[in-house]
Design brief:
- The strands form two sheets. A six-stranded mixed sheet has the order 6-7-8-3-9-10, sandwiched between helices. A four-stranded antiparallel sheet has the order 2-1-4-5, covered by helices on one side.
- Helices cover 37% and strands 26% of the residues.
- Helix 7 links the parallel strand 7 and strand 8.
- The protein is of the alpha/beta class and 235 residues long.
- The model has no long low-confidence stretch (mean pLDDT 89).
Length: 235
């Protein structure tokens, strides 16, 4: 097992944001976490990546406890996060943003830069353009590319389709599939539950800080309760 989260409890002051969440991600999978705004999805991701601290519970990555580990050490282990809202460095070029993704690495970057540019030809065309001048879809490509420059074994993506046009969203999901085909495990948070469940090997549904249900992506996509709550397609 690549990632194991067990009985996670996270608070914002007096607010109990995550209540006993347990989840697993096996190597080579695409796992998705769906749920309404405020369900606690991003809090789970930020706790796994070390940006937040859990009050109780355990997190293990490749068998190593990472609960109290600094975020940079977690990245060095091979776990990278592509944050919600893209958060590119707007005043830096595309190429500079990508190199920042590799700031902890001491090995040559040329092969990985080439791989990112193969995945996102648009970024290669705009390598010396300021990131702030890119479209929303291009900025999302850059955010994903920047995370890939850390050479992760597991990439966590927080709402990669947020605010993007439908045609761009389809492209982003195809890229997620391609990243996975290249051997990188994916943990995906998405409000676009329909698209997320289509590509997920396994899925978790979160509601008000807890896991409501879990199962294969296809199985949850066919579940009437999930359809009614998240897909808008209940009979």
């Amino acid at each position: 097992m690549l990632l194991s989260v067990n009985d996670l409890h996270v608070y914002y002051g007096a607010i109990h944001a995550v209540k006993g969440v347990s989840l697993e991600v096996n190597e080579g999978e695409i796992v998705t976490l769906i749920g309404a705004n405020g369900a606690g999805k991003s809090t789970v991701l930020n706790t796994i990546s070390g940006l937040l601290r859990a009050k109780t519970g355990t997190i293990e990555f490749m068998g190593t406890p990472i609960n109290t580990m600094a975020p940079n050490k977690i990245v060095q282990l091979g776990l990278a996060q592509c944050p919600e809202g893209r958060r590119v460095f707007e005043n830096l070029t595309v190429a500079e943003n990508l190199r920042i993704g590799a700031y902890l690495r001491k090995d040559p970057l040329a092969d990985d830069l080439a791989r990112v540019y193969d995945l996102f030809p648009r970024l290669k065309e705009r390598a010396w353009q300021q990131a702030g001048t890119l479209s929303g879809g291009e900025q999302q490509m850059l955010a994903v590319g920047r995370a890939l420059m850390a050479k992760p074994k597991l990439i966590m993506m927080d709402e990669p389709s947020l605010g993007l046009a439908p045609i761009v969203v389809r492209g982003i999901f195809e890229i997620i599939r391609e990243i996975n085909r290249q051997g990188i495990t994916v943990l995906l948070i998405e409000q676009n539950a329909n698209m997320a469940l289509k590509i997920a090997d396994w899925a978790y549904v979160m509601q008000t800080g807890s896991i409501l249900m879990q199962g294969p992506g296809e199985e949850l996509a066919a579940n009437e309760e999930v359809k009614a709550a998240y897909l808008g397609t209940a009979k």
